[in-house]
Amino acid sequence: MVITQTRPWRQLRQDFAWAEEAGYDVAYVYDHLTHPTAPGQWLSDGFTTLGALAASTTRLELGTLVASATMHSPVSLARRAGTVQDVSGGRFVLGLGAGSPREAMADRGETVTAGQMFAHLVDLVAGLDAVWKGATEWTGETRSFSGLQTLPLPDGTPPPFLLLAAHGPKAIALTARHGDGWNTYGGPSSVELEPEEYWSAVGAQAERFGAACEAIGRDPGQPRRSLLLGYGTVRPTRSVAEYLDAIGRAEELGFDEVVVYGPFGEPGDRFWSEPDVHAEVLARRTA
User: Fold this and answer.
1) Cβ neighbours, 10 Å, residue 91
2) ∠ at Cα 89 (75, 85), nearest 5°?
């Protein structure tokens, strides 16, 4: 479940408690400074929010969907991620993607291209790996660090699960090589597709991801495959039947994880849904 952190903490904490009690496995937040799904709304910092939630949840995996490479460098991201991983007792999922030009503009008034964003992502993935392995210095094409004297994680704490968001061939190949899991919502071109066209496009992506794994000798069934639904025209939480159908379709395409938006806010909001729909689907799936 994605729970957009647009509500004040006193409500957000209850939202996550509901998700855990209802039976969801993972709860994600945004890592954005601005986003078209939250115009004119408060949007709390994702990592700070997850750190607080780590102390008020016990079972849920907690993650970012997704951290934006346009805003982060390897050491600072590793420190944020490592802190949530420590506080949560190893339940953190570091969702990471190239990001959006909106983030660079909001963060520093900079215009970036798709190529530049992907180059930042490549360096961030490699730089994070260097930090986790204890490097004190590392040099990439767009990101570097040196003089690092502190440890990347507390003793006995493993690096967080790395879930890479990828839609195009280059990003899918990067994910196949370095990701513990792969996430997609279908990509920007899928948002306006009608449902049957959407599922066909996602199926083609899944085939490309499997082929990318095989090309490097990796078992295509080993990485977690995560599909976010609800951003485009396919909105499964409108009814129990639609939700169950979407889960079945995702499973047929090889996805292990279906992510939907939480039933919070007010009727008429873009992602609002009836809580009873979620509760009934989860009850049926775990029966």
Assistant:
1) 22
2) 15
Global pTM reads 0.97
Strands 67-68 and 138-139: unpaired
Residue 280, token pair as written in the block: 């009934």
The neighbour count for residue 45, using CB atoms within 10 Å, is 15
Summarised one tens digit per residue, pLDDT across range 173-228 is 999 999 999 999 999 999 999 999 999 999 999 999 999 999 999 999 999 999 99
Measure the CA dihedral 209/211/129/106, to 10°.
Answer: -30
Q: What's the sign of the alpha-carbon dihedral 39, 7, 45, 255?
A: negative
Please give the Cα distance from 195 to 261 (Å, whole number).
17
Can you say whether residue 129 is alpha, beta or left, with left for phi > 0 and alpha for psi between -120 and 50 degrees? alpha
All domains of the chain, ordered by start, with CATH?
A: 9-286 (3.20.20.30)
Residues in the chain, total: 287
97-149 per-position pLDDT tens digit:
999 999 999 999 999 999 999 999 999 999 999 999 999 999 999 999 999 99
Helix (H) or strand (E) holding 207: helix 195-215
